[in-house]
Amino acid sequence: MRYSAKVAGTAALLLMATACAGHDRPTGTPAGSVPASPTQPGLPTSPSANPPGKPRLTVPEGSTPVPADKIDATALPASYPREVWTGNGGTVLDIRAQEGGCGHALGEAAEQTADHVVVDLSETKAQTGQMCTMDIRYPVISVPLAAPLDGRTVVLKTTPPR
Fold first, then answer.
1. What is the mean pLDDT of residues 109-123?
2. Looking at the domain assignment, is residue 6 inside a domain?
3. pLDDT in tens, 128-142
4. What is the pLDDT of residue 55?
5. 136-148: buried (b, 16+ CB within 10 Å) or exposed (e) per residue?
6. Is the residue at 21 inside a domain?
7. Is residue 2 situated within a structural domain?
8. Cα separation of 51 and 61, whole Å?
9. pTM of the full predicted structure?
10. pLDDT of residue 69 exceeding 50
């Protein structure tokens, strides 16, 4: 009799667990699937999709891609993203950066001349003794400019973690 009660209880528990599983994934996403990457078409680009102060995974609405011939990414490692957009009338660069583990991507306009803008991309350094995951993320970071980008070239470079 006790054996039957255990089997019935276990079956009820499994039924509840499977009924509740999957309610946290977006509609239309099969169980066990990986969510779409942030650069796939159809994903939201609204700034409201990412609260202020949080890493942005999508490009802000209304941003304009910078043409590939206006991006000099020769100083970046081969695996680093090379995506740049302008926003706010060209006074903000939205750049797909790379970060991992406990680090967070940073960017600043290190030099601004009449023909180019040099953007220094780096990452915060993990605290000593802190355990970190070994993942790589590709957030979009915003870098303000003193004047609109217009026809200037964006030069991307990296520096060691800070």
1. 96
2. no
3. 778 888 889 999 999
4. 61
5. ebbbbbebebeee
6. no
7. no
8. 14
9. 0.65
10. yes
Q: Which helix (H) or strand (E) holds 105?
A: strand 105-112
pLDDT of residue 89: 94
Cα distances (angstroms) measured from residue 94 to each of 40, 103, 119, 147: 17, 19, 11, 15
Neighbours of 117 (CB within 10 A): 21
d(CA 93, CA 119): 9
% of the chain surpassing 90 pLDDT: 49
Each as own residue / partner, the long-range contacts of residues 63-71 (CB below 8 Å, 24 or more positions apart, any chain) are 63/87, 63/94, 66/93, 66/149, 66/154, 70/151, 70/152, 70/153, 70/154, 71/153, 71/154, 71/156
Residue 95 CB neighbours (<10 A): 24
Question: Domain limits at 89?
Answer: 54-162
- Selection from 68, 65, 53, 111 nearest residue 90 by Cα: 65
- In this structure, is residue 16 part of a structural domain? no
Domain count of the fold of the chain:
1
